[in-house]
Each structure stands twice: as C-alpha cells, then as structure tokens.
Amino acid sequence: MKKIFALTFLVLAVSVIGTFAQRNVTPAIDRDPIMEADAKHNLDVAWNYYSLKKAYKATLMRFEETFAAYPDFSKIDEFLFIGGMSSYYLSEGKGKQPVDLKNEKDKEKYTPEKLRESAKMYLTMLVDKYPDSKYVVDAKKTLNLIK
After folding, report:
1. CA distances from 125 to 54, 70, 81, 97 (A)
2. Are 79 and 67 in contact (CB under 8 A)?
3. 89, 118 Cβ separation under 8 angstroms
4. Which of 62, 80, 102, 115 has its CA 20 to 30 A from that of 121?
5. Residue 105's pLDDT is what?
6. Buried b vs exposed e over 53-63: b needs ≥16 C-beta within 10 Å?
7. How many CA atoms lie within 13 A of 90 on its CB side?
8. Residue 7: pLDDT over 70
9. How far apart are CA 122 and CA 119, in angstroms?
10. From the CB of residue 3, how many other CB atoms can be counted at a distance below 10 Å?
11. Which of 11-25, 51-65, 102-116, 122-136 has the lowest mean pLDDT?
C-alpha cells in the first residue's frame, strides 16, 4: 500500500513539474479588454467609411483617434493600412469628402504634401513593424507610387 501511495505521489509530482516547465516564458501583450473592444468598434466604423462610403477624411480621423489612444491595439496593422491609404487618396483629391483648403483647420492638416507625408509615415510603419501583415504588399505598392 505504501508503495502504491509513493508511486502515485511520484507520478503526480513529475506531471506537475512538467506542467510548470511548459509555461510560456515570454508573456503575451497584456491588452485592456475595454480598450480593445472600443478600438475594434472604431476599426469597424473606419472600414465602413473607407470601403463603402469613400469617406477618407472620416476614416483618417477615426484612425488617428484610435492610434493616439491605443497604439497597442491587436489589429493596428489594419488601421495603419486604411489610415495610410486614406491619406494617400485624400492627397490625390479622391473620395466623397472634399478637403476645404480655405478652412484653416483643413489647410493645416490636409494639404496634399502633408497628406502624402502622413501616408508615407503610416504605410512605412506598417511595412517595418508588421512585415507578416496581409496589407504589406498593397502598402509597398502605394509607397512606390508616393516616392
């Protein structure tokens, strides 16, 4: 009986030690679930603006708001892509939201030169920080057009 108890204890101890030995040494990024949900909502709205409405100015505003508040968002590569592309399209005069360069706020932020600079910055950040993203190929194509 003592041998069975000792053998059971030994097997249990080895399995517990094995479990602890398999722990992930590098912890994943600790993401705030509330911020993550809010950023996901903003991304969904931004995609709607971007793809359905061609409202690139609104897309860019959503992106910049989210990027400033939560740069560790799990899908920031998507946001960098649509933010960069929206900046590029606005610099080309595309989209259904015109940029009014007579308006001081728009003139400060939305000149074609500043928009191309923003597009280049966001798309370069995407390519450099997230090389495995599915948006990298399109980002590189647009970067070649900007240069």
Report:
1. 23, 16, 9, 26
2. yes
3. no
4. 102
5. 77
6. eebbbbbbbbb
7. 33
8. no
9. 5
10. 7
11. 11-25
75: tokens are 């899908």
The structural domains of the chain, ordered by start, are: 32-146 (1.25.40.10)
* Spatial distance between the Cα atoms of 66 and 23, rounded to a whole number of angstroms: 33
d(CA 35, CA 79): 15
Per residue in 33-65, pLDDT (tens digit) is: 999 999 999 999 999 999 999 999 999 999 999
In the chain, what is the greatest distance between 2 CA atoms, to the nearest angstrom? Answer: 91
Burial class (CB in 10 A: 0-12, 13-18, 19+), 98: exposed
CB 73 within 8 A of CB 63: no
pTM of the model: 0.79
The tokens 């706020």 sit on which residue? Answer: 105
